[in-house]
Amino acid sequence: QEILEKYRDLLTLQWEGVTGSMCAPSQDEWEQLLTNCSAFLFYGMERFMSHVLLNWLVAMNIPKCRLVILLDLVQSQQSYQRITNSDIHKSCLRVALERPTETAMLLSLTGVGSVLATQWYTSSEEHAERLETLFENLLSFGKTTGQTVHILQK
């Protein structure tokens, strides 16, 4: 929330989304957010694909979305328990499709121009640092996505 407040003036006037942990977006809300955006940021616990229905995502056509940033793969005891309980009811193939590379491929097939995603589990503090670096370089300094990724790799 602090990072969003810090960069509020640099964000577009059409900034829409869901913040907080009070409730999870419905599939309709996910669809509306993804289809009506030019850039999409997911900053949350566990795998992004564990929050959306696979059948719903692969049927989507979202070419207006030029960039998806997935800052997922953060675990807490509560989120780990939720995802474990959810994964029990999924096939091995379905769980495999929720991995970062597969998620990026699925999003690309729906028309997303670029996907920037974490590749392994990390702490919420490290994610906050990544988000700060992303916003600083993309919004404050006007760097390209590629330049920003290069900075994140250092």
Automatic annotation (TrEMBL):
Top-rank taxon: Eukaryota
One annotated GO biological process: axoneme assembly
InterPro entries noted in UniProt: CFAP46
Protein name: CFA46 protein
Organism encoding this protein: Thryothorus ludovicianus
